[in-house]
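so i finally got all the pieces together for this one. its two components total, 644 residues if u count the protein bits. some of the lines might not be protein, just check the labels. i wanna see the whole assembly predicted at once instead of chain by chain like last time, that was a mess tbh
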Amino acid sequence: MDKFRMIFQFFQSNQESFMNGICGIMALASTQMYSAFDFNCPCLPHYNLAYGLGILLVPPFILFLLGFVLNNNISMLAEEWRRPQGQRGKDPAVLRYMFCSMAQRAMIAPAVWLSVTLLDGKCITCAFCTSVPVDTLGNASHSRLPQGEIQRVLARIPCKEIYNGQQLIANEVAVRYLRCISQALGWCFVLLMTMLAFLVRSLRPCFSQAAFLKSRYWSHYIDIERKLFDETCAEHARSFAKVCIQQFFEGMSTDLVAAHCHLPRKAPVDTGEAAEKLLGITDQGTMNMALKSWHRCKPPLHLNLPALPTGNGWAGEGQSPTQPSAPRRETAAYYSWV
Amino acid sequence: MDRFRMIFQYFQSSSESVMNGICGLLALASVKMYTSFDFSCPCLPQYNMAYGLGIMFVPPIILFLCGLILNRQSLVMLEEWRRPQGRRKKDLAVIRYMCSSVTQRAMVAPVVWIIVTLLDGKCLICAFSGSMDPEKFVGFANLSTVQVQELLARVPCKDDELVRNSTSRRAVSRYLRCWSQALGWSILLILIIAAFLARWLRPCFNQATLLQARHWSNYIDIEQKIFEEACCEHSRLFAHRCILHFFESMRQEIKLHSFSSPREGEGAEEEEDLLCGITDQDQVNKLLKTWYCEKPPLDVSQAHQR
């Protein structure tokens, strides 16, 4: 129990490292997703841009939402935000802190996807191959094709096997150019993200350290309080269930005695505890009836019932259920504890 | 349990080894990043230099910033630097020591990237092939300047149709690679000699101050970790107490409103305590609803005054 508490405490205090772990796993998953994805540029003038930009921007959005979904604390944030005020005031700084820390973690996987896509170059090559500057890189004056035809030829740049514009502009030259631009964009994006992260992390101790400590403590407190409350409720439910079932079996044993006028075969002296545990049910037929009654007619969720009939219908289908069982119950209660 | 506590304590006391571990991982990550990065020189006169030097210098900046971000001690140092003086004086020597140790560790991964880049040679070939003097190499003799520039720019691209079988391309490439590797090895040698001298000669200067600075920087780090742990423990106890009081107040409310006598069973006493007087479905529902609609105030001293 102590060991369990110690491990629980470790995870509580390292909840941040647990979240960081999930964040890292998602980043790796996004790299894996990209390498497993089979990129197929359509090589048609208007579809290239849509496809390329779609692959560049839609998966990050999905990964961002997934980052929020997989974060356990989102329900905690929503609950804290929407609860009625009651006797405890709400601190917007705490809510902001919780939201910011979740958003920061959720942004890592999309940023990884964007960087990997840009550094690889296929998406940008596919999306912008029709905008290659043919005048500087190729021989625009050489061929007198109409504009539409030039666009169609350029659109086939990513698909080397069907490219037929070698006189217009060499395929390798165009691909190298687009790749260079894509990789430059990729590195600039990574540099920008890293600088942003660095600024966010290093400016905080300079400006609002006290407020930060407060928000962090209370957001942690809310989380722990919720978990402890769930634990306490689980314990309570356990005790509740135990007493409820004990009362059910007692009721069973009472009805059994009353219905069959069954003297117990066991001698009261030597069995004691075992008899208590058996609660008066000592043969297969009786047990089967107890199980059937449990299924058909569960006891009400009300312990400490003063003088209600058992009403669980066990004690024989023929008997009338409205028989006053209070006096019988009293006798049986004393009887079963003997 | 004891072993777990010991491991925890070990990590607490060796934050230096944790930081060294992170530093090593970042250096390995930088090598892996370089090998998995697909370097493709644009082979165009205006773009080569920008691309080559960009790949050589931008990732080191990124790695340096990453090294600062991932190092916990940089945050501790900043907090120590910016905190109000209060009743504890600030020791600049400690802050300087922490700053230098953080910076040194953060510089390892960028240096590894630059050296790997130089030893590989592709970046320098891409960046400086256009600045070569064509007279040094045969094969550029009877061409105009523009054509020479064009050919030189394509030297890094082995499979380009213009320079595929050109011996002068291979000559330029070998020449630049030789320079690049020489530069790489020289930088490595200089850095290692500098590190060696710094470590060897340090005990000759200010050893006492250094020991003090190291001790107090370690202390500040541990103090902050223990404070965070104490806060966690405190919030757990606070929450526990708060919830128990909540259940207790519910029990009292129920006692006030219902006049039924409690159950007479002798054997159910401990269960009674655990149940806190909440013994039917409506009461449980009411408890849960009250928990949501009216959380108890954050003040566990009230129970003593009730």
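The mean pLDDT of chain B is 84.
The two ends of chain B are 40 Å apart (CA to CA).
anyway lmk what u think
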